[in-house]
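Example 3.2
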Amino acid sequence: MEEDPSESETGIWKLSVDGSSCLTGSRAGLVLTSPDGWTLEYALRFKFKAKNNEAEWEALIAGLTIAKHLEVQKIEASSDSQLVVGLTNGEYEAREDPMIKYLSHF
């Protein structure tokens, strides 16, 4: 894997998350990539029923928790959930109780 010098110099880690919910349960995945290009991949299965956006939040919080334990200083997170991204960027206002709780935890 070729190293992108600009990314390595800035020390920015990348976190990508995705969550889903269906009749058989709720799951999420996350990939944490270091500035040097090595990756940590996690698959999460929840023992509680979560809606799609809740699964996205759970993945984001898990990824940030892992990054904190690794003492990551700079991180850029991405998600395909427009709601989660909008809430974390301050573009949206949380109106439903679960989203308010996730945002306050974030």
